[in-house]
TrEMBL record:
Keywords: Kinase, Transferase. It comes from the Eukaryota. PANTHER family: CHOLINE/ETHANOALAMINE KINASE (PTHR22603), RE24176P (PTHR22603:SF93). GO terms for cellular component: cytoplasm. One of its GO terms (biological process) is phosphatidylethanolamine biosynthetic process. This is Choline kinase 3 isoform X2. InterPro entries: Kinase-like_dom_sf. GO terms for molecular function: choline kinase activity; ethanolamine kinase activity.
Length: 359
């Protein structure tokens, strides 16, 4: 066995997880007494948790059962409330979204294994797959979820800023200009908050690793709801566009290539599909306005994940250069701020002049 951290040392499963696996197995009519019969496969690309696929042979021996074990990352309480995330997960299951929750233990949970493939970085640029993702996002945003439809983005960033400053040295605070970020967050909230913006239940972390595709049915499943909350849907789209510059399965997963940021035509195609997926063709003004707001919300995405990177650099032990990732996100914020919030000269026919190969 090849599991490691949080009790997975030298291939030894924690007793709590063994009990959950035996219970799940018995419900399926299997007997999982021999823990050495389990095949454990680490799944790469997760940056908050560690994720493993677990297989075991059934009684007849010609079929393997599969499930997924999620080991919670260290220090995640700095980012979100785990109980809230579990409630979201269970509510999603009731809506027929994502995997079912099969069991919980102290350091993680056991989930249904979805028989679909996780997207790759390149898949996000495939026109057909991108259209499926756009339609799925619209469906996700329209889900009836518990709680007030209150935007969480700005207060969450303020909380993260307090957390980051409490961890950072004076040198770190100066490098990342953390003392100025309270004003930046307040400025963005004022500039980007409009009554006409749609508020929906947003995933808030729609990178390719959180999107699964069933090749047979061509259906999309969104997974991992740790950061999900009500927010402007423009923010969720902006965050998805920003994720198109990343490849978390490369030899340098923390390096972002902003030459891969989607150009105007690609963004317009995505927005048109998103808006029309509800069965009504959007007007030109509607599409242009959403595109404009999405580009401005990329600034919030950069600050959000920049702060996440700083905190993760202190609390998370996953092999990923979080601090360099944070530097890149903050660099993009300061580079793009004037262009995206500047004078009308920075806009062409209603669009922000973001360039076809810039981000």
């Amino acid at each position: 066995m090849v599991m490691k951290t949080n009790g997975f040392v030298d291939g030894i499963l924690p007793d709590e997880l063994k009990k959950v696996l035996r219970l799940v197995g018995s419900e399926w009519g299997d007997v999982v007494d021999d823990m050495e019969s389990l095949q454990v496969i680490p799944l790469k690309g997760a940056m908050t948790n560690e994720v493993f696929q677990i297989n075991w042979p059934t009684k007849c021996g010609n079929l393997d059962r599969k499930l997924l074990v999620r080991i919670y990352g260290e220090g995640v309480e700095a980012f979100f409330n785990r109980d809230d995330e579990i409630r979201t997960f269970e509510c999603m299951s009731k809506h027929g979204q994502g995997p079912r929750l099969l069991g919980r233990f102290a350091d993680g949970r056991v989930e249904e294994f979805i028989h679909a493939r996780t997207l790759s970085a390149a898949d996000l640029r495939d026109h057909e797959i991108s259209a499926l993702v756009a339609a799925k996002m619209r469906e996700f945003h329209n889900l009836e979820m518990p709680g007030p439809r209150t935007v969480l983005l700005w207060n969450r960033m303020r909380d993260w800023l307090v957390e980051a400053k409490s961890m950072c040295s004076a040198k770190c605070v100066k490098e990342f200009r953390l003392d100025s970020l309270e004003d930046e967050i307040s400025m963005l909230e004022k500039e980007l908050s409009h009554d006409y913006l749609d508020i929906g239940f947003c995933h808030n972390d729609l990178q390719y690793g959180n999107i699964m595709l069933d090749e047979e049915t061509r259906s999309i499943t969104l997974i991992d709801y740790e950061y999900a909350s009500f927010n402007p849907v423009a923010y969720d789209l902006a965050n998805h566009f920003c994720e198109m510059v990343a490849n978390y399965h490369s030899e340098t997963p923390h390096i972002l290539d902003y030459n891969k940021y989607p150009g105007l035509e690609e963004r317009r195609r995505f927005v048109d599909t998103y808006l029309s997926s509800a069965g009504k063709q959007p007007s030109e003004d509607e599409a242009v306005l959403l595109l404009h707001e999405v580009e401005r919300y990329t600034l919030a995405s950069h600050l959000f994940w920049g702060l996440w990177g700083i905190i993760s650099g202190y609390v998370n032990k996953i092999d990923f250069d979080y601090m360099e990732y944070a530097r890149q996100r903050f660099r993009q914020y300061w580079l793009r701020k004037k262009r995206l919030l500047g004078s009308p000269d920075n806009h062409v026919n209603g669009y922000v002049a973001y360039g076809t190969g810039s981000g």
